[in-house]
Amino acid sequence: MTAETHTGAPTGPTPDGGGARPLRVVVAADNAGVELKNRLRDLMLADPRVAVVDDVGVADASDDVAYPVPALEGAERIARGEADRGVFVCGTGIGVAISANKVPGIRATVAHDSYSAERSVKSNNCQVITFGARVIGPDAAEKILTEWLGHTFDENSPSAAKVARIDSYEAGRV
């Protein structure tokens, strides 16, 4: 398994003068998802909305580390505040999503279409999107990821109370 940090766009204000800070993204994959993970990582390195990409996935298809290991490491980094978002890949996307969701405070989902990816952030404040390398083509994954990176959660939306309910349950306050 690798643990590499790649620097993408510079940090600081956005080119249009806005205050949005470029994202710190962690990527993770097992051997079934390593090729797609690498392609998505490289795409994000060229994206001005992404400052850093940390790669905690396997280095190549010969590495047989099971998907929970990199998914849990990536999710833990987000939970500790070391990354803002995560992009995790396995054969179906399901295993890495289930693994990531075991980390308190993490909301991860499989999204193989644009609408689900959009709603994962806008309605559910998901920090992690997962893909199944055996389910989605790389061009479609790139399109969905590019769109997903641009979505933000509105803390004043009607969805905010629903997400707060989930957070309360997880914290044992319900």
Describe this structure in words.
There is one protein chain. By secondary structure, the chain is an alpha/beta fold. It contains 6 helices and 6 strands. It has helices at 34-45, 68-79, 94-101, 114-122, 138-149, 159-170; strands at 4-7, 23-29, 50-55, 85-90, 108-110, 128-132. Strands 1-3-2-4-6-5 form a 6-stranded mixed sheet, sandwiched between helices. Helix 1 (34-45) crosses helix 5. The radius of gyration is 15 Å and the shape is globular. The termini are far apart. Mean pLDDT is 91; it is low at 8-17.
In short:
With 174 residues, the chain is α/β, with parallel strands linked by helices.
Secondary-structure blueprint:
Layout lengths: L3 E4 L15 E7 L4 H12 L4 E6 L12 H12 L5 E6 L3 H8 L6 E3 L3 H9 L5 E5 L5 H12 L9 H12 L4
Parallel strand pairs: 2-3, 2-4, 4-6, 5-6
Antiparallel strand pairs: 1-3
Helix pairs in contact: 1-5, 2-3, 4-5
List its traits.
single chain; alpha/beta; 6-stranded mixed β-sheet; 174 residues; 37% helix; 6 helices
Give the spatial strand order of the biggest sheet. 1-3-2-4-6-5
| SS field, number of helical segments | 6
Q: Number of DSSP strands?
A: 6
| Average pLDDT reading | 91
